[in-house]
Amino acid sequence: MKRNSLSILLLLSFMFINAQDAFEIKGFCISAPSSDKVEEFVDFIKNELAPNGINTLVLRVDYNYAYESRPELRGENPLSKIQVKQMVNVCKELNINIIPQVNLLGHQSWHSEHTKLLQVYPEFDETPHIALPENYVWPNDDGLYCKSYCPLHPNVHEVVFDLMDEILDVFEANAFHAGMDEVFYLADDNCPRCKGLDPAALFAGELVKINNHLASRDARLWIWGDRLIDGAVTGIGMWEASMNNTARAIDMIPKSVVICDWHYEKAYPTAAYFAIKGFDVITCPWRKPEVAIAQVKMMHNFKMNSTPEMAKHYLGMMQTYWSSTTNFIEEQKKSAENQTNSAECFKAMLNTMKTLESLKN
C-alpha cells in the first residue's frame, strides 16, 4: 500500500511538471543599443522578441549609460535615462523581464583598450604590470585575454556598487547580471593583496559581496557559469570552464545565484551539474543551430525526467549575441544556407522549444 501511494504521489508530481511550461525562461542576451539606435531596438523588441515568446532580455549595458552617481564612467554617446525608460516601458507592456548587465571582476579590457573602470581607476587593476599591447594577438606571452579588477582593493566596491544601484533603479530591475566569465587574472603573484590566496575563495568572496549588495536591494544575481566548472576534470578546457582553480567556488556561494551555462561548440550536459548543486540554471547557445537544438532537447529531457526537486532548477534557454541589434538584423537577412550565425541559431532554438512544448498538448 505504501509503495502504491508513493507511486501515485510521484506520478502526480511528474504530471505537475509536465503541465508546467517546460521552458520558464525564454531569453535573449544582447548589448544595449547605442544612443542613436534606441528606436531600432524598441522595434526589435516589439517585432522580433515578443512575437517569438521571449520573456527575458539580458541587456549588456556596462558603461553605455549616462551615470549620474559616477559621471566619470560614462562611455561615448551613452544612453540617457529617458532612452532607458523607453526600453523598460516597452518590455513592461510586452511582459518581458529586462535584466541589465555590467561586467564585474573580469572583462575590464578588450584587446588593446581598458574599459572605463580601469581607464578612470587604474589602481583597481589586478595586473598593472601587464601592459595592453598596441596590436593584440592570441595567444601571447602574458596570457592576456582581458583584464580583471582586484577584488580586494579597498575602494573598488564603493565605485562598483554605485553603478549597480543606479542601473537597478533606472531599469526598475529585480535581477542583475554581473558577468564574471572568463576571469583569467585572479590571485596574481604580483598583486600585493591577492598574491598567494586561493583563486576559488577570491572568486567566491567577490561573488558573495555582489550578491549580498543585490540582496539588500531585493534583486537576484545572475552570472555566467564557466568559472564554476572544472575544465580539467570535464575536459572542457579554459574558455567554457576554468583551468585556473576557481571551480571549487561552486561550494562557497549562495544557491540563490542564477547560472547562465554557456556552451557554443557542443551541448555539454553541465546544466545537470549546476542543478545537482542546487542552482537554477539556464542553457545558452550562440551561433550553431545544431548545438542549440541539442541543448534545447537536453534541457527538456532533464526537466521531464527529474524529480520535482531537481526539475525546478532547469529554468530554460537564452540565446546570446555578441554584437549589435543592427548586426543581428543583418544576419537575419542572410541565406538560411549560412548555418553558422546567431540568427539561424536563435530560430533553431525557438522552433525546437515550440515543438517540444507542443508535445504535451
From TrEMBL:
Keywords: Hydrolase, Signal
One Pfam family matching this protein: Glyco_hydro_20
Domain Glycoside hydrolase family 20 catalytic residue range list: 78-324
Keyword Signal among record annotations: yes
SUPFAM superfamilies attached to this UniProt entry: (Trans)glycosidases (SSF51445)
Signal peptide span: 1-19
Keyword field contains Ion transport: no
Top-level taxonomic group: Bacteria
Family membership: Belongs to the glycosyl hydrolase 20 family.
Protein name: Family 20 glycosylhydrolase
Species this protein is from: Maribacter arenosus
Organism placement in taxonomy: Bacteria, Pseudomonadati, Bacteroidota, Flavobacteriia, Flavobacteriales
